[in-house]
Amino acid sequence: VEVPVKKEYLPNVYVCVTLLKGRVEDPSYTNHGMDLGKPSLKIGYAEISVTPEERHLKVDVSKSHETRSPGEPLEVAFQVKDKKGQGQISECMVAVCDVGVLNLIGFNTPDFFNDFYAQRPLGVMTSDTRLHIIGQRNYGEKGENSGGGGPGEMGKKRNGGMDMDMFSFRKNFLSTAFFESSIVTGEDGKGKVKFNLPDNLTTFRIMVTALTKESLFGAGDSTVVVKKYLMLKSTMPSFAIVGDKFSAGAVIYNYTEEDTKISIKIETAGAGIDEPDTKEVFVKKGESADVRFKINCNTVGMVKVKIAARAGKHTDAIEKEFSVKAPRLVESVALFESMDSDSALQKVIIPKKEEVFSGAGFLNISLAPSAFSGLKSGIDYLFEYPYGCLEQKISKAIPVVLSKRLILDMNLTEYKEGELDRLVKDVIKELPSFQSYNGGFCYWTSKYWDSPWLTAYAAYFLIKAQKEGYKIDEKILSRALNYLKDYGRRNSIRKDLPYSTYCHLSTKAYIAYVLALGGMGDRTIINDLYKNIDKIPLFGKASLLKALYHTGYSKKYLEKVRQVLFNKVKISSTTAHYEDEGMEDLYWIHSSSVRATSAVLQAFMESKTENPLNEKVANWLKKKMKAGSRFRNTQENVWAYHAMTDYFKFYEKEKPDFKTTVSVDGKNILSHLFNKRTQPVYSKQFGFSQFKRGEELSLNISRKGKGRLYYSLRMNYAPRELLKSRDEGIKVTKWYETLDGKKVEEPVFNTGKDYVVVLKVNTKAERHFVVLDDPIPAGFKILNLSF
Asked: What are phi and psi of 94, to 5 degrees?
């Protein structure tokens, strides 16, 4: 059979031949009595390769110079031809990149020809029911075996001898020298580009990728070397910590034709040099020398370093910047207070200059007509939390969907409205990658196990986001709600979940509430929970109260759950709070006394429950927050924020109209007028140099007018002495070792040597949902990126 080869068959086509045979009149049988005469079928395939080379473009790339110096112009010309050598109108992408970077990732010049015209596998399956005809059987004298089966199928300035103003410093370092995604050639297939090279001393690969309207593809490349006869390569760190001392400078390469003496000078801004700023070295031709200077970093901020070298007529100079950061161990002290009297007095001691690093400390004073000012730290904590499981991602966005307008009006964040909206939209966009096949949500995209509690949290977020006008995927929410309804109706705990009975019931109660918000209120679930009210943890009881409220249950049921919650309160003279007792394993649903107290207070607000203890509960939360300026984790911050916002909306009824003045030792340092509740927080930051240091200062806050003033004082500083370690439940010990296992006793490290960082963690109790964050030491590079 002759088969015509058409261009549509590129790059290959398959021919299939099927043979059919009917029943044979005179049947024969195998030794086992199998019917050989029954109808049969045979199928064969042959691949016909259709060469696509006529679709492959040839791209010739040329450049104006083989080698250039940094910053000089380069012109690149290219021509696109077809298989016959004729120029073709093409759309081309041109990229000029550092070969060193490309080699790190094994990047080749992209040619889409192979992607479009690669050989394709057979994509047709053929079957025929005649294969399943039951054959006649012939039972001979020996009979046959009664069992068995057939075969199966598997398928970073001083005076000196060198004038730094005489040098042109290299500082424009780019890994991509040029990029243009769409350049259309002329009919002759020719095109060209011109650009200035950056200051990198390296080899750049010039890559041109072409395509035509007729689906012809091709690519070509070339290289250009950027070099100097005298070349410096910085050895400055990418960052340093204030207080660091190190040796750094540059490696100098001699590519001249003779051995020579080279003068090198360094100039710094933002850091100090502990030795003469000029050195001389003798370097043989073709060789290099590592020249270093002793540098100290005692101030937080950016450091600019200039290094220049001269050997006769040959010169090179580089300019680098790096940041000096505050130590990670920064002490913070804060208080959050309110007043309706005329004045309040606080005592402040600013650390002595010799006790702390300069540039790393401040005193911040914030004033507000609403207690919302006390929530700023919690909002900052949530928005800036650096880790990314689903609970943490949702917890960033929840405050926005609950009260974006309040966050903006009260100036609780530096984010603009568009940035807040984008934060919510980004979380909504990421949700599908965390949803399992059964509709449940998992903490990580690896989808190790789906969590009913987390699914309820995600559904709650989607419902609230949709209500605030954000576009969501209805299918994702629907799948989650159906998953929740299925789990909520379970009487037993799913075997793959680490839940106790208390976790299970609390989760079911949260589910009942979320289903009610989503228009799928389920009285079967609520009735079952109501019967087990004494076994449900406080978070669940608060959720059940809201579920009853939103599904329209009678006052009798609501009063019962309210009374149970009233009975669980723990009261002191000025505060009241809630805590679960005798219930194990509640960490799987992120339980804590702060979250339970917040959830109960918020539930009372949402269900319009008047409780004379609400003010004491809010006061307990404010005192807890004052102790550390924010709560311990994302869940505590989210629920405390939710409860306090609802509380403040309900109870802050007196319109503020007052002027506030703050003075230190009788000298006024700030004042502000408040005449409406939604005025943003007025905040001002003071450097330590503005105050007497090491002495007790009297800070007086005065208020003239009506309304309650809320104020916060926060002082951050980085002590020069290492903070004493303390064990607060989890103890982390860190040390360095050489590769042969010897411990580094002094914090002195040698350039070019490998070290091992060892972390030891001790805890007396089982811990869940813990982050251990070990920062990279200044000057180090990580070798094992799997950590």
From this structure: -120, 125
Q: Tell me if the bond preceding 399 is cis, omega within 30° of 0.
A: no
Pairing of strands 730-738, 682-686: unpaired
Residue 777 confidence (pLDDT): 86
Residues 19-35 have pLDDT tens digits of 988 887 766 666 666 77
Distance CA 458, CA 453 (A): 9
Give the bridge partners for 217, in sequence order.
56, 211
- Radius of gyration over alpha carbons of the chain, in Å? 37
Neighbours of 490 (CB within 10 A): 13
**Is the alpha carbon torsion for 227, 231, 235, 237 positive or negative?**
negative
Burial of 765 (0-12, 13-18, 19+ CB in 10 A): exposed
Question: 688, 582, 599: which is closest to 647 by C-alpha?
Answer: 599
Kind of pairing between the strands at 203-211 and 91-98: antiparallel
* Residues forming a β-bridge with 281: 262
Longest dimension (CA), the chain: 122
pLDDT band at 750 (very low <50, low <70, confident <90, very high): confident
How remote is the C-alpha of 77 from its chain's centroid? 42
Q: What share of the chain is helix, strand, coil (3-state, %, to 5)?
A: 30, 30, 40
- Tokens of residue 233, six digits: 């390569």
**Residue located via tokens 């679930």:** 525
In tens, the pLDDT along 318-332 reads 999 999 987 767 787
Kindly state the tokens that stand for 222. 């070339």
CB 387 within 8 A of CB 443: no
Burial class (CB in 10 A: 0-12, 13-18, 19+), 492: exposed
Question: Token digits for 58?
Answer: 């040839």
- Measured CA to CA in angstroms, residue 95 lies from 37, 104, 117, 200 at distances of 68, 17, 24, 16
In the DSSP assignment, the letter for residue 64 is: S
- The single-letter DSSP state of residue 318 is E
At residue 390, what is the residue type?
L
Could you tell me where the DSSP H helices lie in 581-665? Answer: 593-606, 614-628, 634-651
Cα separation, 534 vs 564, whole angstroms: 8
Closest CA to 549 of 565, 535, 534, 569: 565
Prediction pTM value: 0.59
Query: Token pair 């049988």 is at which residue?
Result: 29
Describe the strand order of the beta sheet including 682-686 as a list of residue ranges.
Answer: 331-339, 709-717, 362-368, 682-686
Cβ neighbours around 407 below 10 Å, total: 23
Q: How does pLDDT run across 61-86, given as a tens digit for each residue? A: 999 999 998 999 999 999 999 999 99
Question: Among 53, 13, 63, which Cα is nearest to 217's?
Answer: 53
Quote the CA–CA distance of 278 and 288 in Å, as a whole number. Answer: 18
Ranges of H-type helices in 431-520? 452-467, 474-488, 501-517
